[in-house]
Amino acid sequence: MRKPSIYKQLLAFFIAGIVGFTALGGWISVQAETESPISPNTEQLNLVGDGKPFKPDDLEQSEKPYDSDRGIPTGIDNRIPMLSRNYPWSTIGRVQGTAADAKSYYCTGTLVASDIVLTNAHCVIDPETHQLSKELRFIPNAINGKSQSSKDIATVQNIAKNVLYGTDFKNGGFDNVQNQSNDWALIVINQPLGRKYGYLGWQSVPASTLIKQKQGKLFFVGYSSDYPDPSKEGYEFLTAGKGWTAGYENGCSIVGEESNHFYHDCATASGSSGGPIIDVIDGLPYIVALNNGEVTNPVTGQDIINFAVKMDFLDKLTGRK
Question: Which strands make up the sheet holding 92-98, listed edge to edge?
């Protein structure tokens, strides 16, 4: 699942002009270019916070995303199933959407406040039609298709008012590099699930620090459409199927920065859009980047490298310096 010599490969493919960009929510496959995003209306939602994580007192914390050795086969790929109900794994869930054309899709989202979920803009608005989704739900800590309680499945009421996004994908869609770097969204849900499940903090860490000091030290969680496969040995008990249990990968890296977005080598697939790339800083979990796309060789279909959104937009929204 890793990409050896990826930075050189990436440059070579761009020069050859045969690089495809795929939005991981499962909507589009296009190529990259330039222009400007919309100016977000921060009055749409009351985003407050200092970017620090929160763990409820009655919620246990675990370093690993599983409680036993069950369901952790070796030699299949880098990922293992996220099976823990403990913090911080409890903060990550599945964003379930219905597009304006009535088609269903899903992405990954993370609680960053008691009632706010962080994901990608292309998980709430169609990059081709520029229309907001007509329905959005958040299923926290979905494991084998289920949350801790069916009562905890949150919805978004009045989507136009309660969704803030960094781009509407006009002026070039995903061909626009600036749209890619602003591919973030904040969703206000109708329940304060963060009080029960906790929420992650965020930090805007310089690319130089992530690249030089954090190689192989980050981890990623996403509800990928290719994982887990219950037909494979060790995954038989995950009967809900692919995309209904998050995959966890430890030891991935930010490997580069260009046009105000990151490149990373974490294992991804459709559905993992909006998944958090996490670093443990002073013993606490912080989102340091937001997975949003991949570069592939359109001839072979081989995954070369992935894109991620930088977190400095949250500093700007909250006025944090």
Answer: 154-155, 135-140, 92-98, 104-113, 116-119, 185-188, 163-165
Nearest to 87 by CA among 219, 245, 204, 196: 196
Residue reference for tokens 């008012």: 161
CATH topology of domain 6-37+50-68+78-318: Thrombin, subunit H (2.40.10)
Query: Nearest-5° angle of CA 210, CA 255, CA 297?
Result: 155
CA distance readout (Å), 200 to 243, 245, 269:
22, 19, 23
pLDDT in tens, 39-92: 444 454 555 567 888 888 888 887 767 654 433 333 346 789 999 999 999 999
Summarised one tens digit per residue, pLDDT across range 235-255 is 999 999 999 999 999 999 999
Domain boundaries, the chain: 6-37+50-68+78-318
How does pLDDT run across 87-132, given as a tens digit for each residue? 999 999 999 999 999 999 999 999 999 999 999 999 999 999 999 9
B/e letters for 108-119, b = 16+ CB within 10 Å, e = fewer, are bbbbbbbbbbbb
Bridge partner residues of 257 (DSSP)? 262
> Which helix (H) or strand (E) segment is 110 a member of?
strand 104-113
CB 134 within 8 A of CB 103: no
206: cis peptide before it, omega within 30°? no
Beta bridge partners of 137: 96, 155
Local structure of residue 51 (DSSP, 8 states) = S
Q: Which residue from 136, 154, 70 is spatially nearest to 97, judged by alpha carbons? A: 136
Which residues have C-beta within 8 Å of that of residue 100, sequence separation ≥ 6? 126, 129, 131, 132, 133, 134
For 118-174, the DSSP string reads EE-GGGTB-TTT-PBPSEEEEEET-BTTB-S-GGG-EE-SSHHHHEEES---TTTGG
Question: What would the two tokens of residue 242 be?
Answer: 């692919």
Q: What is the pLDDT of residue 268?
A: 84
